[in-house]
Amino acid sequence: MKQLIECVPNFSEGRNQEIINQVADVIRQAEGVTLLDVDPGATTNRTVVTFVGEPDYVVDAAVKLIAKCQELIDMRNHHGDHPRFGATDVCPLVPIANITMEETVEYARKLAERVGKELNIPVYCYENAAFKPERRNLANCRQGEYEALKERITSKEWKPDFGPNKFTESVAKSGATAVGARDFLIAVNYNLNTTSTRRANAIAFDVREKGRPKREGNKITGKKVLDEKGNVVMIPGTLKGTKAIGWYIEEYGIAQVSMNITDINATPLHVAFDEVTAKAAKRGIRVTGAEIVGLIPKKVLIQAGKYYLAKQKRSLGIDEKEMVKIAVKSMGLDDLKPFNPEEKVIEYLLEKEDTTPKLVNMTCTGFANETASESPAPGGGSISAYMGSLGAALGTMVANLSSHKPGWDDKWAYFSEWAEKGQLLKDQLLALVDEDTNAFNVIMNAFGMPKGTPEEKEARSQAIQDATKYATEVPMRTIETSFKVFEICEAMINKGNPASVSDAGVGVLCARAAVHGAYLNVKINASSLKDKEWAEMMINKAHDYVVKADQIERRLMKKTEKVIG
User: Fold this and answer.
1) Choosing from 37, 82, 183, 543, which is the catalytic residue?
2) E strands in 448-510
3) Which of 41, 232, 515, 526 has an alpha carbon within 20 to 30 A of 419's alpha carbon?
4) CA–CA separation, 518 vs 310, rounded Å?
5) Contact 23/65 with Cβ under 8 angstroms?
6) Is 380 exposed, middle or buried (0-12, 13-18, 19+ CB in 10 A)?
């Protein structure tokens, strides 16, 4: 499987659109990577770029981007509200798919070495790529920012990991770069109904993990308390895995708490939002919304949507896009400007890059017309999976209606749980609609292989057998998944809103039809396999499901008729 890493360089230009475009074009034109997002900030004078690809391609593209920033940006003239010490200030790599953090660290260090050697830029490795414990924290590497760089790179303690340790004319122009490997980081700014940077900072100190210095007497002007080693004693904040500062954004005319959530498992976004809101309220300040900088993983918004729905005692078994919408509105992610999930959620952006046509993206009419055409696919296997998804959808609908039934408020959690199960089955079966057709296409491709030599004939024969086995396994998964739909529909027939019992009954009929239809596909595909023992095992297994499905369908239809009667 393809390895994917994400690269999120932050470069020190957020106002000159011509420079921003030139830097972004480096990634657009780079081989093997996909540009996902370009997010400039005028007040911070900083732009965050996000792109993904296979590791070696990402490293090559990152070197080219850093070189372009070195060419176009002069740090001697740079000013902005965000801490910075280089033209390409930071360049973290993030593991996305089929790659470990340890492997990502190796690529980050490879990138750092190339930047130091090829571009003569001082490079500090931070987070998981750090060579020294004190360099894991980016703030330590960047302490004093660009203005302190001349002295720091020449010191023994803060000599760069790669690149020059002399403040040459070239280094004076480019500054330094921090290259790291980290887990997914969420950069979020909380919008406040105040213009006070001091108050925004106070809220940031309340919540950030590092907290604030402990002082003698007056909490603001009192002398800082030191420990026996002479280090400042800190009063920890309330949110683990977070860094935060307060600032004023002239572009919006408000103060913000700017936060990096470095551990989204320890502190999910919705938890951070509620905590910042609570601390702000204690200071007489209101959080009006939040601003996501760069991209965000889908699961973060799904978790938030479920959290806020549960607080409202509403069913969590709703469509993914609706769940994301709940999260956006609950945290005011569209407070300052529109929040388009298709452009901000990393999984949706990757889906947009996949241009392979999908049956499930068709209209109902288009899908029916495509099925009726002379094309052999989609066929009975895809239709069976789709019928199963409709059965799951009907059971889920009854669960959601029941959770909102007046007078049933104490039952919302019970029905919500069933609705979540139904949504999951529906999505799994929808995926099988396309997978069944893909399996058929794999068989056709195998039949199209060359057969001019004995070796080619043998390879072709084996490919046909492998593809046919796969085409047998897919409808078996449809059977097994559709069979689980009965459980949801039965629960809704027994305890759901009686006014919707007929819908649950139709869901039962859909599930039975899906099991029967997929069984026919298992049987016809398995019959052409040379491995007769395996084929017979699959056919018998599928037939057992058919027998059970018929028994369950008869029993549940009697119950449905009884409730209706």
Assistant:
1) 82
2) none
3) 515
4) 37
5) yes
6) middle
Among candidates 36, 57, 51, which has minimal Cα distance to 6?
Answer: 51
436 is known as an active-site residue: yes
In which element (H, E) is residue 499 found? Answer: none
Q: Are 327 and 304 in contact, with CB atoms under 8 Å apart?
A: yes
Phi, psi of 6, deg, nearest 5: -105, 145
Contact 341, 324 (CB under 8 A): yes
The model's pLDDT over 96-153, given as tens digits with 9 standing for 90+, comes to 878 899 999 999 999 999 999 999 999 999 999 999 999 999 999 999 999 999 999 9
Nearest by Cα to 298 from 270, 314, 321, 317 = 321
CA-derived radius of gyration, the chain: 29
DSSP one-letter string for 392-421: HHHHHHHHHHHHTSTT-GGGHHHHHHHHHH
Asked if residues 440 and 471 have their Cβ atoms less than 8 Å apart, the reply is: yes
DSSP state of 254: E
Name which residue leads in pLDDT, 338 or 375: 338
**Three-class SS of residue 180?**
strand
CB burial readout 21-37, b (16+ within 10 A) else e: eebbebbeebeebbbbb
pTM for this predicted structure: 0.77
Residue type, 87: A
Torsion angle in degrees (nearest 10) through CA of 202, 208, 212, 214: 130
**Can you read off the two tokens belonging to residue 71?**
């060419």
List the catalytic residue out of 78, 436, 503, 516: 436
List the beta bridge partners of residue 95. 5
- Do residues 178 and 141 touch, judged by C-beta distance below 8 A? yes
> Which positions ≥6 away from 253 have C-beta within 8 Å?
195
Q: What is the distance between the alpha carbons of residues 403 and 389, in angstroms, rounded to a whole number?
A: 21
Stretch among 33-42, 284-293, 503-512 having the lowest mean pLDDT: 33-42
Active site residue 37: no
Contact 189, 335 (CB under 8 A): no
Q: Residues in the chain, how many? A: 565
Q: Distance between CA 117 and CA 60 in Å, rounded?
A: 14
